[in-house]
Amino acid sequence: MKKLATVLILSMIVTSAVYAAESGEDLFYKRCTACHSSALSMGKKKDEIMWKSTIKRMKKHGASISSQETEAIADFLSGKK
Ligand code: HEC
Q1: What separation in Å is there between the alpha carbon of 73 and the centre of ligand 1?
Q2: Between the N and C ends of the chain, which has fewer C-beta atoms within 10 Å?
């Protein structure tokens, strides 16, 4: 019984983590508009690798972005038209 409860609780935590995950677009507007406008990024064309290195540089400027968020934002920015 105790084991079942543990499994249930763990699966609830995992599920809520998945649902709490924000899209790259949401994260971009949250994390990337504090120091300069979103237009600065939206007007640039870079591939995913270039965006990742740009985001790394932003972290050096003081942006707080996790590696998971870096992936999502780079994915969004390289995929936009
Ligand atoms: C802590 C402040 C800060 C945050 C937050 C920030 N930036 Fe910047 N950004 C800067 C500064 C300072 C510059 C100019 C110096 C430079 O280019 O490194 C810049 C320049 C840029 C440029 C123009 C230069 C280039 O490489 O094309 C882009 C694009 C950019 N940022 C994208 C982003 C993205 C995407 C995010 C979110 C992941 C972000 N920034 C978050 C400070 C910030």
Answers
A1: 13
A2: C
Distance, in Å, from the CA atom of 72 to the CA atom of 79, rounded to the nearest integer, reads 11
Residue 36 alpha carbon to ligand 1 centre in Å: 7
Rounded to the nearest 10 degrees, the angle between the axes of helix 67-79 and helix 24-31 is 110
Cα–Cα–Cα angle for 52, 25, 17, rounded to 5 degrees: 90
pLDDT, tens only, 38-72: 999 999 999 999 999 999 999 999 999 999 999 99
Query: Which domains are assigned to the chain?
Result: 23-79 (1.10.760.10)
